[in-house]
Amino acid sequence: MGSEGSSPDRQAQVAVALQGKKVILCVSGGIAAYKAVYLARSLTLLGGDVRVVMTEAAQRFVGAQTFAGVTGNPVVTELFTDAPFAPHVELARGADVAVVAPATANALAKMTAGLADDAFSATLLSVRCPVVVAPAMHAEMWDHPATGANLAELERRGVMLVGPDAGSLMSGDEGVGRMAEPDEIVAVLASVLEQARDLEGRRVVVTAGGTQEPIDPVRFIGNRSSGLMGFTIAREAARRGGKVTLIAGPHNLAPPGGVDVVSVGTADEMREAVLQAAADADVVIKAAAVADFKPVQHSDRKLKKAAGPPDISLVPTPDILAELGSTPSLRKPGSLLVGFAAETEQDPRRLSELAVEKLRSKGADLIVANEVGSNDSGFGSRTNRAVIASSEGVADIGLVTKDALAAALVDTIAERLR
Ligand code: CTP
User: Fold this and answer.
1) Where residue 5 falls among pLDDT bands split at 50, 70, 90?
2) Domain ranges of the chain
3) Is 375 a catalytic residue?
4) Is 339 in the pocket of ligand 1 (CB under 6 A)?
5) Checking phi first, is residue 142 left (phi over 0); if not, alpha (psi -120 to 50) or beta?
6) Which pLDDT tens digit goes with each residue over 203-225?
7) Could you tell me if the CB of 317 is within 6 A of ligand 1?
8) Is residue 340 within 6 Å of ligand 1 at its C-beta?
9) Distance CA 30, CA 101 (A)
10) How far, in Å, from the CA of 307 to the mean position of ligand 1?
11) Residue in 340, 353, 367 to alter for ligand 1 test, most ligand atoms within 8 A of Cβ
């Protein structure tokens, strides 16, 4: 049991990652609680020290005794006991990773609000380790804006999401809401434990969003970048111990926790902020979609319609990435420079060629080329189709969530910094 779909090598690595690790398994009340028993058993067989905390509702689906049996540890179900210590504090202390499986809509809402009215939620408020959630609920509840908003807030705080999968639900309906399979959750927990804090002590600069080049006080030249990719990278880098400065163009996103945010409007402002931060950065990641051109001049007063269509002459903005790539003195010796390439190219081979071209033209160490312009990739989408190019070759990442792309990119960066 455990990571059955992966190679024997990977299974061995998963076991190494879990060996002796204190894993808190928080079980909330859904039918998928039965799958949490398999999860507990897999994690235990792989060498994890698995401690289970259950909500009252979870105990309607599976008995605490079952978890005690498969983990060999007592199960926490009560907030108040006659023990001389608080069980949830004891549970949370020294934990390496916590996983909420299944995470019901109610559990996600309680985590978001920071409630602590039972042992389950009090434990989650007390842990200081990485937290992974594996949601399971009816498709309607998953689709509700309240659940979406809760998850967005939890992800902003660094909570990682696995699943839910699409398929047949207990209600007999088809839809998104099935808890991820235990093997998949084990794999995520292992990689969280492997990656934990591999950017510790590193200074990371990330740029995000588009810039806006003013035409007059109300109009600008801009692009459709939402900033989500850069924000996701900043959050991932911070979660892994990096000291992150996020230089962001105008956006509507909540800043990730533990990240210094510098807000800029134009390409010139972004250049100034980046050059200042790059001097002592170990890695500069230019995920921003900087406007390539700006009006030669902009009017201080709103241009009136009656004056007719304005003649707007454009000049290039400074290419910040190319400047950093061609002037080593602007950066810390040994630092890494990562650029992005937004391309309307669906063919991975062509995307790779463009990435390699930009690697050279920008003088970067890595280029992440992602497809923009289709519904499932690029600006505004939750997923990206991407490749990562370096002097050693091109890795095709495929179509993945921006979270997964951020994790893959930070893996590559951490590896190179080592
Ligand atoms: N970039 C930059 N400064 C600019 C324009 C782009 O630093 N004035 C950076 C972006 O942050 C990104 C990379 O350059 O990391 C590539 O951006 P992209 O728009 O894909 O490429 P361009 O250089 O603008 O070339 P083209 O639009 O012709 O593909």
Assistant:
1) low
2) 8-194, 203-417
3) no
4) yes
5) alpha
6) 999 999 999 999 999 999 999 99
7) yes
8) yes
9) 9
10) 34
11) 340
What is the rounded CA–CA span in Å between residue 199 and residue 235? Answer: 12
Q: Amino acid identity, residue 127?
A: V
Indicate if the pLDDT at residue 6 is higher than 70. Answer: no
- Ligand 1 neighbourhood includes 341 CB (under 6 angstroms): yes
Cis bond leading into 217, ω under 30°? no
Residues in the chain: 418
The mean pLDDT value for 347-371 works out to: 93
Tell me the C-alpha distance between 379 and 367, whole Å: 17
Residue identified by tokens 């920071």 is 114
Whether CATH 3.30.460.80 fits 203-417: no
Rounded to the nearest whole angstrom, what is the distance from the C-alpha of residue 289 to the centroid of ligand 1?
A: 7
Architecture of domain 8-194: 3-Layer(aba) Sandwich (3.40)
User: pTM, whole model, 2 decimals?
Assistant: 0.74
| Chain mean position to CA 77 | 31
Q: How far is the CA of 201 from the centre of ligand 1 (A)?
A: 29
User: Under a CB-based contact definition with an 8 Å cutoff, are residues 395 and 324 in contact?
Assistant: no
Q: Whose CA is nearest to atom 4 of ligand 1?
A: 319
CB of 267 closer than 6 angstroms to any ligand 1 atom? yes
User: Parallel, antiparallel, or unpaired for β 49-54 and 22-27?
Assistant: parallel
- Report the C-alpha gap between 307 and 132 in whole angstroms: 58
Report which of 375, 379, 376, 365 is spatially closest to residue 398, judged by C-alpha positions. Answer: 376
Ligand 1 pocket, residue 271 CB under 6 Å:
no
Q: What angle do CA 265, 239, 7 make, to 5 degrees?
A: 125
Among 83-97, 118-132, 181-195, 213-227, which stretch is predicted with the lowest mean pLDDT? Answer: 83-97
Average pLDDT over residues 163-174: 78
Do the first three CATH levels of 8-194 and 203-417 match, i.e. the same topology? yes
Q: How far apart are CA 151 and CA 147, in angstroms?
A: 6
Distance 362 CA to ligand 1 centre (A): 9
∠ Cα 87 91 96 (to 5°): 175
Å from CA of 341 to ligand 1 middle: 6
Mutate to test the pocket of ligand 1, among 292, 323, 351 (most ligand atoms within 8 A of CB): 292
